[in-house]
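In this supplementary section we document a worked example of the pipeline. Step one takes a protein sequence of length 180 as its only input; no multiple sequence alignment statistics are reported here. Step two produces a three-dimensional model, which step three serialises into structure tokens for compact storage. The input and output of this example are shown verbatim.
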Amino acid sequence: MKSLTGIIVLIALSGAAFLANGLWIPAKALLAYGLLDRAYNQAEVSSIPAKPWPSADFAVIGKLTVGGKTVHVLDRATNQAMAFGAGRHEEYEPNGPLVLSGHRDTHFSVLEGAKRGDGISYQTAAGKVVYRISETRIYDIREGVILPPRNGEIMLVTCWPFDAIDPGTTKRYLVLAEKL
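The serialised model returned by step three reads:
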């Protein structure tokens, strides 16, 4: 009887450990989203990009809304940053064209349904800018460098195809939009 009780306790503890492990990621994501929102609110008040936590290698600079989904916009497109939102490509001047990258299976999954004529809004401490999608296309990075959009345009970049399992794809889905 003692061995049966021990087995039951072991199974219950194992189940609790698996449950805790399964809840850890959603709980962490919920906490991160709250910290990102807080950093965005601080940035709106102070007009200075704010880090969501001290060790972050990025700051929150805005919010992008596409297809009814809102995504935090971060000041750089590093691996760490893109785990939490859309990253701005730093190689463009702050007042130059806006080029954002995000993961196809999380923050930029909404781009799969994006089509010509759809609206995009970009909110920062400086105000809100509205864009209209002018083009979507697939680009293979082996073809060379993607030409940036002109000033007054926005380019959203994610991996393609959306349902691919392989993270090493060379194709990108581009959404180009013009300022209204």
